[in-house]
Amino acid sequence: MEFQQIQLEIRDSVGILTLNAPDKLNALTPLMVTEISQAVEDIASRCRAMIITGAGRAFCSGASLDPSNPLSPLDNEPATRDLGFVLEHQLNPLMLKLKNLDIPWISAVRGAAAGFGASLALAADMVVASETAYFAQIFSRIGLVPDGGATHLLSRTLGRVRTMELMLTGNRLSAERALEWGLINRVTEDSQLEAQAFEIASSLANGPSQALGMTRKAIWAATDNSWEASLQNERELQKIAGQTQDFAEGIAAFTEKRAAVFTGK
C-alpha cells in the first residue's frame, strides 16, 4: 500500500504508523486522515500491536489551516459554515476505529501534540513522550471548542478543574506535568523515544493478543458504564478469553514454571 503523507512499517508483529509531513509539523489534511484510517485497518489485520508517531520535531500540530490545503474548507459565509462536518465524516470515525481496535496501541510523542493532535496522542492505550513533548488544547485561541473526544477523555482522566484550565486557557502541558497528572505513561530522552515505544509495543505484541484486545475494550467501556454493567461485560469477555489457546498456554506455562509463549490465538 502506497502512502503520500504517512509511513507504514511492520516490524516483528508491531505496526509503526508515522505521520510524515514534518515541514508542516504533521498537520492533518484530508489525505492524511484518509491514509491514517487505511493504515490502521491494515495494521490491525496483520499485527498484534501498533505505534503512532510523527516524523520530525512534532507529533501533530492539529488540523491543517493552510488555505491551499485545509482539513476543513472555510466557507466565506459564516451562516453556512459547518466545521462539524469534517468531525462527523472523517475525524470521529477515525477515533471510533482506534477505540474499537482489537490490538493495543501506543503513541510516541515528540514536540507538539496540539489540537486534534493532542486528542489523537492521548487516546492511545499507552502514551510515551520525549522530554520535548507538550500537549496543547489550542482550540480556544482560534475561537473553537475541543474535539477528537478531548472533553470526554481529559475530564475523566484529569477531572473537571484541570480540564477546564487546559481547555479555557489553551496553555501548554509539558510532558513532565502530564506524567505527574497521570495523563501519560513514560517520559524519555528525546533520542530514546522510538526505542522505548517499540520495547513496550513489542512486549504487548508477544502477549495474549485476544485477551489484551478484550481488556482494552473493557477499560474503554468501563469509562462510561455503571459498576454493574462493567461486571457483566467482564463476565462475557472472560468466557471468550477462557476459550483461547493463549489461556491454555498461560496455564501450562504457570504449572511448568516457564515463560509463556503466546501466539495470539
TrEMBL record:
Taxonomic lineage from the root: Bacteria, Pseudomonadati, Pseudomonadota, Gammaproteobacteria, Cellvibrionales
Similarity comment text for this entry: Belongs to the enoyl-CoA hydratase/isomerase family.
Name of protein: Enoyl-CoA hydratase/isomerase
Highest taxon in the source lineage: Bacteria
Gene3D superfamilies hit by this protein: 2-enoyl-CoA Hydratase, Chain A, domain 1, Lyase 2-enoyl-coa Hydratase, Chain A, domain 2
